[in-house]
Amino acid sequence: MQLQFTEEQLAVRDAAREFAQTELLPGVIERDTNQIFPAEQVKKMGELGFLGMMVDPKYNGGGMDTVSYVLAMEEISKVDASASVIMSVNNSLVCWGLEKYGTEEQKEKYLKPLASGEVIGAFCLSEPEAGSDATSQRTTAEDKGDYYLLNGTKNWITNGGNASVYLVMAQTNPELGHKGINCLIVEKGMEGFTVGKKEDKLGIRGSDTHSLMFQDVKVPKENRIGEDGFGFKFAMSTLDGGRIGIAAQALGIASGAYELSIQYAKERKAFGKEIAKHQAIQFKIADMATTINAARWMCMEAAYQKDQGQNYARAAAMAKLYASQVAMDVTIEAVQVHGGYGYVKEYHVERLMRDAKITQIYEGTSEIQKIVIARDVLK
Ligand code: CAA
Ligand code: FAD
């Protein structure tokens, strides 16, 4: 048994690799240092079809499978994890959720420009006091007949400043607990909606992360996704696929650091020979190769299950849990392989190490993935 990809899947991988090398690599250090959003590059990603990869072509998408998406995410993440989180949120949290659960009108109005990359979207679940404990939504969406009155604050929203379309979870019927939560499509520019401060982050510094404030924002009823009270299940179901994207991001960060380490170990000499000839370095490379291989299989298993219409929640959580740990382990060792050079920006691995950490936090922390896995195993 081996991972065998179709010609189409390999073509997607090669196109993503080419794009990452020619468009993302130049300037990646400067964007990281100065927290510059890769606006030009994101526009090109849209033109190349990387922002709506799995969406049906009738809604301007690429009609590709999840395996292709994982291959592309890995290649982009090897070089620029800021660009890949922008891509991941748009593809798997925003476009996927809209295509799966949106009305025909919502797809025409919102999905089409999102899938083509004309605009980008954001997924807004987390709040200052509701992160892992996502059912404790404090943001409210009061039912006013033909519209909802939205009030509250969202935290940590990726694409927060650059998005045009926001999927916002909010509580309509607190007495119903999670069954009272709705997901509303909010447009930038709606009266009462303001974008708050941009976070100054450890990693993925080219992506923008903002708080969002809603004060008496009138959101038309037709902007609700699914039935009344479907918002929490919408968020959970969407995150199952999102976690495959973040697992692939973690895999890419690890593979990027691994490839740089091999190259460096073959060039750098110490004690009269290449450091690759010292067994201590060989063992690090062997551990990297082994764990990255396992992470890749797990990402592909989750993607394959999704493409086959199977239940992929457990496999997605496992892939994210494992690949994010591999990303941390591999990038820390990659800095070590590079010695002092690994500690400076020019060699890229210090950035990859900083970027790796977020994959253990967002779209459900590693502890939350273990809860998801254990509940599924023990049910
Ligand atoms: N699909 C569909 N429904 C699901 C589901 C899934 N995968 N998982 C749970 N549900 C349903 C349950 O069936 C339940 O419904 P019923 O009562 O009708 O059976 C309901 O949701 C509530 O589930 P739980 O009782 O399991 O809820 P809980 O309070 O114990 O929490 C949790 C479960 C898994 C911990 C969940 O709160 C969670 O995933 N937390 C993490 C939040 C998260 O991942 N946030 C990410 C934000 S987005 C982001 O981070 C993007 C980015 O960075 C780029
Ligand atoms: P908490 O939930 O307060 O957790 C703190 C610690 O306690 C963690 O280690 C956690 O694992 C642990 N913990 C909590 N509950 C349990 C438990 N039951 N058992 C064991 N351990 C537990 N959110 C969005 O909605 N949209 C976005 O686009 C988005 N982008 C993000 C981008 C960045 C850069 C960051 C940092 C976050 C982003 N998030 C986004 C939010 C992210 O999903 C949350 O930070 C994450 O879910 C954790 O929530 P929290 O920060 O409130 O931590």
UniProtKB/TrEMBL annotation:
The keyword Flavoprotein applies. Its EC number is 1.3.8.10. The keyword Flavoprotein applies. It comes from the Bacteria. Signal peptide: none annotated. It is an enzyme of class 1 (oxidoreductase). Residues 231-377 form the Acyl-CoA dehydrogenase/oxidase C-terminal domain. Gene3D superfamilies: Acyl-CoA dehydrogenase/oxidase, N-terminal domain, Butyryl-CoA Dehydrogenase, subunit A, domain 2, Butyryl-CoA Dehydrogenase, subunit A, domain 3. Residues 122-217 form the Acyl-CoA oxidase/dehydrogenase middle domain. Keywords: FAD, Flavoprotein, Oxidoreductase. Pfam families: Acyl-CoA_dh_1, Acyl-CoA_dh_M, Acyl-CoA_dh_N. GO terms for molecular function: acyl-CoA dehydrogenase activity; flavin adenine dinucleotide binding. Belongs to the acyl-CoA dehydrogenase family. This is Cyclohex-1-ene-1-carbonyl-CoA dehydrogenase.
